[in-house]
């Protein structure tokens, strides 16, 4: 294979993020909305300061994933012709030719797209974990320090909310059970723990008494883009669930 020159962050100074986030379903307010708050004495007001801090963390993380999506889309639309990511036989008689429609510039686009997709998926789940922290603080959920499995997390918050506000918990579980969320979790796990989806795998399959060799697996940039949009859709739905129940609870109180 000939040498390929990659240009990291090529032309990034030219990016106007507003031009590349119009496909994002996220609606981010100018500043935290104060959804999480406590009413009462001076101690509750101190809790509000802490809640406000965590809402700022949430807001910043929402901005971060929106930005990373925008940068990824900048490189996506510069061109990554990988819908047909291999042909067999190849143009020069190879048994398999990968990325037959790529010119050198497309490798830079894929490299840069993948960098921001990586960051997007890892950052996206910090949003859910931050929401977990806020729910623990809002409802003063206790953690059993003697149980290493009992820790602050989005998943644990949803389970513990069942005994506090089942309707609230059910709505959050609906988002968690959606295809958008599940596909986002799978891609995040592949990026963090398994084979990167934007690289062609080895093609080796090993069994107890057998082995096979094939083309490998690869996820196209278009598929990654759609998974990113779906995950943002689940984040937006989560924010709407928070607003629905937290505002309702504030009014009822």
Brief rundown of the structure:
By secondary structure, the protein is mostly helical. It has helices at 42-78, 104-138, 154-161, 166-176, 179-193, 221-252, and strands at 86-87, 97-98, 204-206, 211-213. It starts with 41 loop residues before the first helix and ends with a helix.
Tell me the layout of helices and strands.
Elements: H1 42-78, E1 86-87, E2 97-98, H2 104-138, H3 154-161, H4 166-176, H5 179-193, E3 204-206, E4 211-213, H6 221-252
Helix pairs in contact: 1-2, 1-6, 2-3, 2-5, 2-6, 3-4, 4-6, 5-6
How would you describe what is shown here?
The chain has 253 residues and is mainly alpha-helical. The strands form 2 sheets. A two-stranded antiparallel sheet has the order 1-2. The chain has a two-stranded antiparallel sheet with strand order 3-4.
* Major sheet attributes: 2 strands, antiparallel
Structural class: mainly alpha
> Roughly what percent helix?
40-55%
Which spans of ≥5 residues are poorly predicted at pLDDT below 50? none
- What is the overall shape? elongated
> Roughly what is the average pLDDT, rounded to an integer?
91
């Amino acid at each position: 294979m000939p040498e390929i020159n990659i240009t990291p962050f090529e032309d990034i100074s030219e990016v106007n993020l507003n031009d590349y986030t119009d496909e994002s379903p996220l609606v981010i307010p100018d500043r935290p909305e104060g959804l999480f708050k406590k009413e009462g004495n001076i101690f509750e007001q101190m809790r509000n300061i802490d809640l406000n801090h965590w809402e700022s963390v949430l807001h910043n993380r929402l901005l971060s994933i929106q930005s990373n999506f925008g940068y990824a889309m900048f490189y996506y639309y510069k061109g990554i012709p990988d819908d047909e990511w291999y042909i067999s036989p190849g143009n020069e008689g190879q048994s398999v030719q990968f990325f037959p429609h790529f010119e050198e510039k497309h490798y830079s686009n894929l490299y840069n797209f993948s960098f921001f997709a990586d960051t997007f998926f890892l950052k996206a789940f910090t949003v859910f974990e931050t929401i977990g922290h806020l729910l623990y603080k809002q409802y003063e959920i206790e953690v059993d320090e003697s149980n290493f499995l009992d820790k602050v997390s989005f998943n644990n918050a949803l389970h513990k909310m069942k005994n506090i506000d089942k309707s609230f918990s059910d709505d959050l579980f609906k988002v968690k059970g959606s295809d958008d969320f599940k596909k986002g979790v799978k891609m995040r796990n592949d990026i963090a723990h398994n084979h990167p989806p934007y690289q062609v795998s080895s093609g080796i399959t090993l069994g107890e008494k057998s082995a096979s060799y094939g083309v490998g697996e690869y996820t196209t940039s278009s598929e990654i883009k759609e998974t990113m949009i779906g995950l943002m859709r689940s984040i937006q739905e989560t924010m709407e669930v928070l607003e629905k129940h937290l505002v309702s609870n504030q009014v009822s109180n």
